[in-house]
Design brief:
Elements: E1 2-5, E2 16-18, E3 29-32, E4 45-50, E5 53-59, H1 75-89
Antiparallel strand pairs: 1-2, 1-3, 4-5
Length: about 100
């Protein structure tokens, strides 16, 4: 059985689970009937529920991914930057 949490998360996705051990959806969840068309945007979907069964599922909006944060410089990066700065300030920078 495949189930979906009725309340969407802040990003618009729905928690969902698939398991043969599930016999009935828990409170706040609904069963996705076998054979129901599931949009490509799943789990970013809009659902309509009657009782504890999904009766309609439409494509939702998939948010743009967050950009990766700029990594912090390593200790070696800091040493190299300091050496380059010192060489520039003392006019001893070697051309490579």
């Amino acid at each position: 059985m495949q189930i979906i949490e009725i309340e969407a998360l802040d990003n618009g996705a729905h928690n969902n689970q698939t398991s043969s051990a599930i016999t009935a959806p828990p409170p706040g969840w609904a069963e996705i009937p076998a054979g129901m068309a599931v949009p490509e945007t799943f789990p970013f979907v809009d659902i309509e529920v009657e009782g504890d069964v999904v009766v309609k599922m439409t494509a939702g909006t998939v948010p743009e991914p967050e950009p990766e944060p700029t990594p912090e410089p390593t200790q070696l990066d800091r040493v190299e930057a300091q050496a380059t700065y010192t060489a520039m300030m003392t006019d001893t920078l070697m051309e490579g």
